Amino acid sequence: MRLPTLPTGLLALLLALAPLGACSSPAPPPAGPGAAPASRGSSPAAGTASAPAAPPAPVRLKAAWFTVGGQSAPLWVAQDVGLFQKHGLEVELVFIEGATLAVQSAVSGEVPIITTGSPAIVNARLEGADLFDIAHYVPVLPYVLIANPRIRSGADLKGGRGATARRGGASDVAFHLTLRKLGVQPETDLTVIEIGAQQSRFAALQAGSVDATVVDEAFGEEAERLGFPVLADVRDVQFPFVSVGVGGRYLREQPETVRAFMRAFVEAIHFFKTNRAESERILATWMKTENQALVADTWEAYSSRYLASKPYPTVEGARAMLEFAAERNPRAAEADPRDFIYPQILEDLEREGFFERLGR
Predict the structure, then answer these.
(1) Distance separating alpha carbons of residues 156 and 210, to the nearest angstrom
(2) Which residues, listed in sequence order, are joined to residue 338 by a DSSP beta bridge?
(3) Is the model's pTM score more than 0.90?
(4) pLDDT band, very low/low/confident/very high, at 333 (cuts 50, 70, 90)
(5) Which domain holds residue 151?
(6) Are residues 122 and 184 in the same domain?
(7) Average pLDDT rounded to a whole number, residues 263-277
(8) 112, 212: one domain
(9) Neighbour count for residue 14 (Cβ, 10 Å)
(10) Which pLDDT tens digit goes with each residue over 63-100?
C-alpha cells in the first residue's frame, strides 16, 4: 500500500509550538512470525519445569473522543467492556472537542490517536500536517437541520442566524448542504456562527440564540419531541462524517499498537450492534443522561445505519471531502484523494481474518 505523500504547505491551523512529525512514510507492518528467527536459550534440563512466561505489560496510550453521541460509542464500549485490555492496551480516553486541538495533539504525539470529523483530517493534511485517516467509521452524514418553532421554510431562515461547530468541519458541510436543499445560500442569506458540539448548538437553539443548526438524527428526534421542526436532512449523502486519525510519527513507530487499537475499535462496533441493553447502558453513562428515548434513538440510529462494520477509509470519500474543501482552499482541487487515507491497518486486519472471526 503506497503511503500518501504530504502536501508542501505548512499547518497553519496548529499552534506554533506543536512539533510536526517526520514526513516519511509509515514503516510497513512487521513481518510474520517466521520472518526472523527467535533467539533461543539453552533447553531446560530433563525433569525440570520452565517457569510460565509473564504476560506482556499493556501498552499505554491516550485516545481522544470529541462529542457526546453515537459517534463516540466505539471508544466508550471498548473502554467499558474491556476490549482495549483484551488487545493488550491500557487506553486513557480524553475529551478534545475542537478539531484543531485534536489534530495538534495527534501530530505532536501527546494524544496519538483521535476520533474527529473526517474533513478536519483532510483540511489539516492540506496544510501540511503529518496525520493519517485510517478509518471512516461513520461514512455518511447523519445530520438533520432543526430550527426555531416559528421557522417553517427556508425563506423564514433568511436574515437569521445559524450555527455550526467549526468552519470546514463535518457539521459545517451538513449545514451548507441542508441549507442549499432549502434554497438558502450560507454566508449571504444568513449569519453563520461557530458554537461547538451538537449539545451546545442544541442548547443555543433552545435559548433562542440561533435560528437553526444541524444535529445528528437522534438529537433531531429529541428536538422534534420538544417542538423544534426538522426542515431538511442529508442522510442520503455519501460523505465521510467521522474518522480515526493517527499522527504520522506514531504510526511509523508503533504500527502494531495502532493495529491493536483498531482490533479493539472494530470489535467494539460489533459489540455495540449486537448487544443493545449493555450498549444503551454505556451510552447513558457517558452521555450523562436519564433520557431513555434519546439513548434508544442513538443506539438505533448508529447500530443500524451509521457505524460501519468494516470502516475502511475510501478514495471516494476523500474525493468528496476535497471537492467541498476546494470551495475555500484552491490546493484541494489539485490534491490526490489517495494521499489523505491509509487503509493498510484495516487491510492487515482483513488478512489476518479478524473480521471473519467477528462474523462479518
Answers:
(1) 13
(2) none
(3) no
(4) very high
(5) 143-233
(6) no
(7) 98
(8) no
(9) 22
(10) 999 989 999 999 999 999 999 999 999 999 999 987 88
